[in-house]
Amino acid sequence: MNGFAKTPEPPYYAVIFSSQRSEDVAGYGEMAEKMVALASKQTGFLGVESARDEGLGITVSYWDSLESIKKWKENSAHKVAQEKGKSTWYQNYAIRVCKVERQSFFEM
Amino acid sequence: MNGFAKTPEPPYYAVIFSSQRSEDVAGYGEMAEKMVALASKQTGFLGVESARDEGLGITVSYWDSLESIKKWKENSAHKVAQEKGKSTWYQNYAIRVCKVERQSFFEM
Fold first, then answer.
1. Which of A42, A101, B19, B48 could cross-link with B61 by S-S, CB 3.0 to 4.6 Å?
2. What tens digit of pLDDT does each residue of B86-105 get?
């Protein structure tokens, strides 16, 4: 879950998930890890980057197509996690689906 | 710098900046704050979301057009910060320019 996603040449797709958690985060870390592991096995998954501090968490997952994103959204285990997120873990969140048009990398 | 960006209806653009910092972070926090304040004043700026933990930092800025992103990239004070980032603060980073096609918000 740490480090950079080794994405291919654009175009491809990104899902930007920004969230503020509620006070009740029991079981959250375990579920988050499970979801990353599960997402990684989905067709069209290209990588994920994630960071969280006190204010906000941002997870960006990368996908080959809108179709792959749709399938992941509808994955049954993922749906359970989404419901638990809404009912318990998240105070609020934003999801943005984007087409990546350009990328550049810098390494020291 | 904390909280959600109140973005308008898509389409608009996002710049996903993922970074790993080096050991030498002197002056980084101050510059980061300055850059967010400066970006906020640019034409076409729609908002910014940022999170950082030990592993990775992710900052997503939102813009009305590719033209606004280009102008911000070429802003002279921002160019100074970019150079300092490359020479000192960042071990590596990735920049992805995306077109946001869809968004949804959830509030508890």
1. B48
2. 999 999 999 999 999 999 99
CB nearest to A106's CB, from B4, B86, B100: B86
Residue A38 lies in a domain: yes
- C-beta atoms of B98 and A57 within 8 A: no
Alpha carbons A45 and A31: distance in angstroms, whole number: 18
Give the C-alpha separation, B6 to A82, whole Å.
22
Alpha-carbon torsion (B40, B71, B57, B108), positive or negative:
positive
Identify the burial level of B94 via C-beta atoms within 10 angstroms of its C-beta, where 0-12 means exposed, 13-18 middle and 19 or more buried. buried
**How many domains is chain B built from?**
1
Q: So what's the ipTM on this one? A: 0.94
Does the CB of A73 have a partner CB in chain B at under 8 Å? no
In chain A, which residue's Cα lies nearest the Cα of B59?
Answer: A58
pLDDT tens digit sequence for A20-47 = 999 988 999 999 999 999 999 999 999 9
pLDDT of res. A1? 39
- The answer to the question of residue A18 being in a domain is yes
Does residue B28 lie in a domain region?
Answer: yes
